[in-house]
Amino acid sequence: MAHSRPTSKPADARPSAARAPPRAGEHFPMARNPESCDRGGMRSVLTSLAAASVVLAATSALAFPQSTHPAMTDPSKATEKAPDTFRAKFETTKGDFAVECTRSWAPNGVDRFYNLVKIGFFDDIAFFRVAKGFVVQWGIHGDPKVSSAWQSANLPPDPPTQSNTRGMLTYAMAGRPDTRSTQLFINFKDNTGLDAQGFAPICKVAEGMDVVDALNGEYGERITQKQGEIHDKGNAYLRETWPNLDYVKKATITSTGGGGGGGGGSTSSAKPEEGGTSPIPFVIGGAAFLGLLAYMMRKPKPEEPAKKEPEAKATKKPSRPRDDDDDSSSKDGDDDGKSGDESRPKKAKKAKKKPS
To answer: Can you list the domains of the chain with their CATH numbers?
Structure first.
């Protein structure tokens, strides 16, 4: 699906054949022979591991949970008919906004959008194009496997029934209405010139347009021509090269208004539980690991009892007896060369006989 970037309308994704190889894992220095490590060396290793864990935890915290719903890699499993009307909420790194959708405006596009939100497709997706005074665009998934699966899942055209005025949500396309897939844009201003080109609005921002206006636009159009790299490398490339982008943290259907698969009335719509991923176990596990490392580093190593070396012959008797566990079996005794008692040392010298 070749996507162009005309100056008068949003650009969409371009295909790329090459796949980015997986990054090699980092290696941390370890002692070659743990038995030979002294306490200082072991503490150094544990400190390095703890620091690395903190860095990895901080890096992971930048990403948001992605869905594992089966339809993420198989578009044929996301073909549910949308309700007549519904509302979708987008939680972003700048705040929340909500859109109201009407199926009769563009049935093919609204059905696709409803399914994408419901399976969790938009979770952890970057607003890679923020062209102030024109549009904000997103919809390339952060996992290359997912983006590849949906890249050619194009929709049949919907003739425009609404105008691309400020706050309208519309699919991006590559020059023709039959190239719509997953990429969307919101109009920052009235872009009514897009109507005649086949851009059919599907929803409108109902709440939080100020959040949309606040999305980071420091990169402008610089990333628009990098869509092939985003497809190939995903969020790893975006977070490394364009670290200040804003992201969708989570998107959900919050209410439905009759017809379609959503049923009537107001319903709370979370993505299917089988596709959810909670970060809580990772946070708890990381905290437990760091706590264990801290405990190991602070716990004093029990001192081994020193081995007694055989004592040399003393020229002078000790001032007090040795402890009972002294392993010396004999000591030099008197100054005249006589040995002392082996069971316990004597405190006084033997008296010498007087000459007769």
So the answer is: 61-291 (2.40.100.10)
